[in-house]
Design goal:
Oligomer: single chain
Structural class: alpha/beta
Distance between the termini: 44 Å
Shape: globular
Strand order of the largest sheet: 5-4-3-2-1-16
CATH class: Alpha Beta
Order of helices and strands: EHEHHEEEEEEEHEHEEEEEEHH
Strand content: 25-35%
Length: 273
């Protein structure tokens, strides 16, 4: 079975109104290229690393202009649409970094809150404390999107192989890794991590990315990437500008790769060290 998918690469602004005006034409372009599954990057509704400013504009998903605008677009275009993540307000008032899968009627089919918080001090002097902004999730999510089963992850999750293995064991054929990778870590690790997750699990990996320099002062790497189950790159935007990457997935390659290298079945428990 073949499935055309599209990755939307954005340079998301700092307000929902501007973000919707930015992302919506790219989603329409992706649908015009025949994509039946479209995925946006992390932080598709706005990007803001200042805590006070974040909470000034943070909204519940049902009140967020981008979430609701993309739900309407999914219904209008008749496509599965993964909001790679939206920064949203939880019922308890805290913030969540949340993937939202919309079905072709614009309904929420699944949500996933980012498990792993990017709390780091980089050798370049950059630092990040996501745990000061967001409440992490506590569950992995695999979900059917039509004829394909997706495993949902977000950005920093790519560094935790156990999550991707669990999703593959739950039947995921395609692992989604929407991201807003920093430029230093992107240059060093982006492609190799994505290819490793594909090879380890025998899965397609789709990684739509933020790219360029944003209003809140951050710089993101771009280079949205699609990887096949054997680890080869099958599509790449080799830049950090907004754009659309459309690729065709032959889902039979998942079974072939897992049969050739049955690592999911061969793993053994062990004690120690």
């Amino acid at each position: 079975m073949s499935l055309r998918v599209a990755l939307v690469q954005t340079r998301t602004p700092a307000t929902q109104e501007a973000a919707l005006a930015h992302v919506l034409p790219l989603v329409r372009e992706a649908a015009a290229q025949g994509a039946r599954l479209i995925a946006t990057p992390e932080g598709a509704n706005f990007l803001q690393k200042d805590r006070e400013k974040l909470f000034q504009v943070l909204k519940a998903p049902e009140e967020d202009e981008v979430v609701q605008g993309l739900a309407a677009a999914a219904a209008e275009l008749g496509v599965w649409l993964l909001i790679g993540s939206a920064l949203v307000k939880r019922p308890d008032g805290a913030a969540a970094n949340r993937s939202i899968l919309l079905d072709p009627q614009g309904r929420v089919a699944a949500t996933y809150d980012k498990l792993h918080m990017f709390d780091v001090d980089l050798p370049t002097g950059e630092s990040a404390r996501e745990s000061a902004l967001y409440t992490p999730g506590d569950r992995a999510v695999a979900v059917d999107a039509g004829d394909v089963r997706l495993g949902l992850t977000i950005c920093y999750d790519v560094r935790f192989p156990a999550l991707h293995r669990a999703l593959a064991l739950a039947g995921a054929q395609v692992l989604t890794v929407p991201a807003a990778f920093t430029r230093p870590t992107g240059e060093a690790h982006w492609e190799v991590l994505l290819r490793a997750r594909a090879i380890e699990t025998g899965s397609f990996v789709l990684a739509p990315a933020q790219g360029g320099f944003h209003e809140d002062g951050r710089g993101t790497f771009g280079r949205s990437l699609a990887v096949a189950p054997w680890g080869e790159v099958i599509g790449k935007l080799d830049h950090d500008e907004p754009g659309v990457l459309a690729v065709d997935l032959d889902l039979s390659q998942v079974e072939s790769a897992r049969r050739a290298i049955p690592a999911l079945q061969n793993a053994r428990g062990f004690s120690g060290p």
